[in-house]
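Following up on my earlier thread - several people asked me to post the actual chain instead of describing it. Fair enough. Here it is, all 236 residues.
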Amino acid sequence: MSDEVTRRRFIGAAGGALALAAGETALAQAAGGASGGKGLKIVAVSCSPRAGKTTALALRVCLEEAAKAGEGIETELIELAGLKIPAQLAAGIPLEPGEKDDFPTLAPKLSDPAVAGIVIGTPVYFGNMSALCKAFLDRWMTFRKENFALSGKVGGVLAVGGARNGGQELTIASVQTALMCHEMVIVGDGRPTGHFGATLWNSANDDISGDEFGLSTARNLGRRVAEVALRLRGIA
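Reply from S.P.:
Thanks for posting it. Predicted structure:
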């Protein structure tokens, strides 16, 4: 092979790499804007059947910290308590006459291009997510059919158990497995705790205020989700 042929191939490969990098930069700038977190949103979903209780409270702590990661970051908490999310639709089984389905009103909130991060929060029941959480994630089949509408969004998980070691990490791993099926970018709680996600303990009377370690993991998760979302949008 001549030196000239080798040189042309090298130049061609380098040019292609530069073009790809330029394209990625342009996409990041278009998605993220020029500075700050303006136009970027982090959504948390409480999958507890009990409205306003420990899972929702923990997610509020998570979102408060996420909002501090960049100027203009928007946050929203969605509670599934009281909503009807029939799981059988994911398997193609139709609703019974008169049966309600609230999922179609939730789906656009998650697939919205402005949403850069999604945090799923669930109580721990027998070492796993709530039935409401599982039904909700099963219905995410629609996002795969919509050209993987959640692809590239940052995903984090928060779990609240009835004991300090009550299956929170098992539950987090189970939810993370579902999120990975959507090409989401999965993160855990950030430093200094730096493990799998937010793990909180509902010690008694629906109170997590005394669980300082658990609350720190919620704060770290919120910050980490927002930080990675900013980086992926080319903002930080």
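Confidence is low (pLDDT under 50) at residues 4-35. That should answer part of your original question.
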